[in-house]
């Protein structure tokens, strides 16, 4: 079970009777992205999300229906204006995933911000494809790690609105 930062609510699986737990220290934000999904996983139809990469390989994701932590491995360095290219994520057990884990692999086109995402769930032999566009968030060190989705959506409205406008532009016939 993750250990929340001071003043931050934990987003983890509800403890089961007799289960043990472990405290996991969270790092500091090193990179963050606003996401706009154009193809979503049916049971989680949330078109927007904020993904925060922490300096110790942990991450936090927030959307209208999710808020959880996990671990990531990036094939390229993050930060200093370097967008990710290929990242594997494993969520920590949380109520978001029915007290279990989920694996996501994202591959980004650094020129367009487009990404493809493959979701693998325990016991499900069929991966689920998702896709969309992402924009980096300026100065991720200033992100309030205890903020709710509603608050981060307002704080980073400009990035989310840019993603929406770009989606509209792609949908408009030329």
Query: How many strands, what sense, and barrel or not for the largest sheet?
Result: 8 strands, antiparallel, barrel
Determine the mean pLDDT: 90
CATH class: Mainly Beta
Order of helices and strands: EEEEEEEEHH
Distance between the termini: 50 Å
Rg on CA atoms, Å? 16 Å
Structurally, how many domains make up the residues?
1
Shape: globular
Count of DSSP strands:
8
Helix content: 10-25%
Structural class: mainly beta
As laid out across the biggest beta sheet, the strand order is: 1-2-3-4-5-6-7-8
Any overview of this molecule?
- The protein is mostly beta strands and 174 residues long.
- It has one domain (29-171): Lipocalin.
- 13% of the residues lie in helices and 35% in strands.
- The protein contains 2 helices and 8 strands; from the N terminus they run ββββββββαα.
- An 8-stranded antiparallel barrel has the order 1-2-3-4-5-6-7-8.
- A hairpin with a 5-residue loop joins strand 6 and strand 7 (114-120).
- The radius of gyration is 16 Å and the shape is globular.
- Mean pLDDT is 90; it is low at 1-10.
Can I get a quick summary?
This protein is mainly β and 174 residues long. It has helices at 149-155, 157-171; strands at residues 29-39, 48-54, 58-63, 66-74, 86-91, 103-108, 114-120, 128-136. The termini are far apart.
List keywords for this structure.
mainly beta; Lipocalin; 8-stranded antiparallel barrel; 13% helix
């Amino acid at each position: 079970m993750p250990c929340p930062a001071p003043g931050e609510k934990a987003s983890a699986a509800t403890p089961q009777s007799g289960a043990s737990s472990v405290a996991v220290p969270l790092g500091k934000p090193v990179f963050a992205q606003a996401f706009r999904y154009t193809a979503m996983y049916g049971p989680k139809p949330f078109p927007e999300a904020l993904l925060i990469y922490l300096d110790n390989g942990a991450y936090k994701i927030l959307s209208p229906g999710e808020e959880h932590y996990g671990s990531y491995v990036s094939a390229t360095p993050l930060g200093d204006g370097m967008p990710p290219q290929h990242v594997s994520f494993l969520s920590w057990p949380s109520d978001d995933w029915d007290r279990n884990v989920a694996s996501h692999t994202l591959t980004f086109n650094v020129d367009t911000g487009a990404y493809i995402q493959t979701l693998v769930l325990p016991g499900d032999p069929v991966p689920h494809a998702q896709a969309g566009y992402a924009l980096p968030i300026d100065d991720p060190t200033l992100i309030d790690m205890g903020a709710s989705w509603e608050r981060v959506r307002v704080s980073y409205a400009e990035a989310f609105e840019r993603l929406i406008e770009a989606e509209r532009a792609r949908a408009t016939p030329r």
